[in-house]
Amino acid sequence: MRQKGVDQFASKRVWIIGASSGIGEACAKALIQAGAKVALSSRRVERLNVIAQSASTNQALVFPLDVTQTDQLKAAYDCILNGWGGIDILLFVSGMYVPLRADQFDFQIAEQTIDANLLGPMRAVSLVLPEMLKAHSGHIAIVGSVAGYSGLPKALAYGPSKAAIINFCENLYYDLLPEGVSVHMISPGFVATEATAQNDFEMPALISAEEAANEILKGIQEGEFDIHFPKRFSRFLKFLRILPYPVYFWIVRRFVKI
């Protein structure tokens, strides 16, 4: 049994959370170009307004919010329900990344990371699920990271938050496939964004946000659950997961110059 894809994005109602920059912004622009109706959310309303101005009349809605605030997410979704009657696709891209290693571990940063990267998507999914289950249709697409595959340097809080997203998406897929609701687990490698600009090390197979958006939208259209890219990098990390730990740690130390 294969989950549903999307024939075309034209007229589809898409709520993009994390739309103001990077991958989210690139997805928003591509979806607007494809004729989708987009609801744009993030904390930076001025950036959302600029993106919305590129859309046709009545094609875009703007709802600034903080993903750690349940009431703000609910207020935005209620407005979408009132205006559009529902959504066809939830695309959750928002997240935070602070490079963190054990010698400077900060629990407050870890707590904030988990709240934004794991509980944020959970909050959004809990809101959209009832209507999708009632309609037996819809798409839930969540951007995680290949950093969730296994432990990597400088990801002491970020990595665990993304590993949990993988588990969350796997559970959603198992439960929702019989209900006609599609789940898309998105695991990018290194993408040139404001977040990765913090990195002070070489990022292998770095791609643009536009390339990432193309991979994501193509995967959703084809009904893929496991959307990962760029393949030359993500497949290598998938291979590392099956190796014995001594070999895995040796490879990481050998090739990750941090």
From TrEMBL:
Molecular function in Gene Ontology: oxidoreductase activity
Keywords: Oxidoreductase
GO cellular component: a single term: membrane
SUPFAM superfamilies given in the database record: NAD(P)-binding Rossmann-fold domains (SSF51735)
Domain of life: Bacteria
UniProt cross-references to InterPro entries, sorted A to Z: NAD(P)-bd_dom_sf (IPR036291), SDR_fam (IPR002347)
Pfam families, alphabetized: adh_short
Family stated for the protein in its record: Belongs to the short-chain dehydrogenases/reductases (SDR) family.
Listed name of the protein: Short-chain dehydrogenase/reductase SDR
Organism of derivation: Polynucleobacter asymbioticus (strain DSM 18221 / CIP 109841 / QLW-P1DMWA-1)
